[in-house]
Amino acid sequence: MNSLLFRRAALAVSAAVVLPLALTACSSDDSSKDSASGSTSSASAPASTPADDPMPMDKPFGPACSSVPKEGAGSFDGMAQDPVATAASNNKELSTLVAAVKQAGLVDTLNNAQNITVFAPTDDAFAKIPKADLDALLADKAELTKVLTYHVVGEKLTPGQLEKGSFATLEKSKLTTAGSDTEYTVNDSSKVVCGNVPTANATVYIVDTVLMPPK
Fold it and tell me: Is the pTM of this model over 0.85?
């Protein structure tokens, strides 16, 4: 009887020792699987590398583009919805040009034209002209019309076309362009400060000097 009790006690002790060891082994295996699974997931995740982001030439470019509002009628998206004379009227840097276009009676002409390029002088560009000369120009509708239409080319020009180009204007004279990348000049003197700006019917290159047609 005592022998039987001793054997049962021994079996109970053995089971008590084996069970925790088995549970520990199972826990270790599960942890190992989780670790392996985590490693596989981490290895399969794509590495994060900085994307190449070259300046897209189908977008506006140039130092003055930074002053264009991000939203509203005067933003790039807003101007793209309006014909060119209307779009220019929403750009605060082109107020003198807009006044000149109205003075010459060219608003409808520009808004109704199709697929044109406008080289648009900024207010600062007009300010380079002595005040007496500018006042005289604004008062002479025929001469003002010649100057303004000299800024308009009868086709949409891409930046690539400006690298070395000669283009007929609506005034009937030619202007020339040169440059590369994001730096272009018109007639060797007027710099493009914000180029490739889309409007509903035109591409606009904002320039820092008023272009004068040849005499």
Answer: no
